[in-house]
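Progress against Task 2.4 (sequence-to-structure conversion) is shown through the following example record, which the project officer requested during the mid-term review.
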Amino acid sequence: MKVTVENLPRREVVLSIEAEPDDVERYRQRAYQSLVQRAKIPGFRKGKAPLVMLERYLGKGALLEETLNRMIPDATQKAIEEQSIEAATPPSIEVSSTEPAAWTAKVALTPTVDLGEYAAVRIEPRAVEVQDQQIDDLLEDLRFQQAPWEPADRASLMGDLLTLDVEVYQNGARVRDDKGVQYRPEPGLASPVPGFAEEVVGLGAGESKEFTLATPNQQEGGESQEAPLLYRVNVVDVKGKSLAPLDDEFAKGVGDGFDDLPALREHLVAQVTAEAERKATEELRDQALDRVIEGATVEFAPSIVEHEAEHMMEQQERRLANNRVSMEEYLEQLSQTREQLMQEMQAEAERRVVHSLVLTELKEREAIEVSTDEIDEAVQELVEASGEQQARARRVFESEETRRSLERSLVTRKTLDRLVEIVSQPAESPAPEAGPDPEEETAPDDDKS
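Structure tokens generated for the chain above:
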């Protein structure tokens, strides 16, 4: 086998491979043995037709195709190994000649990642503050949720619950006739069309009103030629809420009950603080990773991004299929071709590739590992959160596929947590030490950077 190697920019090489005649003949015999077992050739028992008859019956092209299909993957893999090439993805093959058998294999090399001085990155965490007004608003929401709807013998107000009969006309034709519709008018509510809520507020039970509103397209200032909508509305009933006093008795009726109003406020403050801290940590993770990426040098072959974009497209097709929508229907809604959608996915695919490579290198540099016990704990949390179907859930979550997925998620989370720990240190202070580097433990003389 003759092999020449051409280095391309951006972590790619092209192997030009020409097979030796003896190799071709060996694979030709294997192809013959495979085809003759499947072919039904008149006058011969299955698997007994000689090669010349097989070629005459199926054509030389069929035997040649089977030969190349068997030989090229094996020979290409052998060439990659002999040249000590570390391939990131399966090679892209292009046959240049059949006699002699020759082809090229474009190979994406494993990416390289230099994180730079990531351990020196410092970011001031955002301070978490809980305002009294936030707690007051939550208490008002609780008062509203706790209060029952009661018939209101008065004109309707914003926030009431109305039962309406609604007829809609356009160009003199009735286009809607809805009975017993429940509707809660709110200031600025755009449903069913902007202005509807303001028109019905003030009506009491048994009252009717007729009014005209522009269509949403007209209200948006477009050049729509649509006729306006004529509404005929009858209010069947009006319900409102009488909110309980905000006192200790109210607090005792919330959830499992609180001793008094201060205890309820304290509980809400703790909830809001925990959520605010979670969001602040998420923001810090994103900022820290972005800063590390800015200082990193990441080189990878374009085909890796193409593979990721294809994976994203496959995921999108599965999501659409779950909703009983075909890719063709989806593309028609977008007024796009498959190629245009794939092109749009390229930027996100590249972002994902860079993030994944940087996180993987961080994991290696910081010696991040996930134990079996940690995976078991994650499985147990999922099982307990599944409600009454815990036995079935355990079977699903204990599968190897799910455990591998959980392991990846836990590694990512621990890596980002470690990064947050690093960037949150005071300025000028060294980063806290990571765990031992497994490579350094086994090879102390290795200059691993």
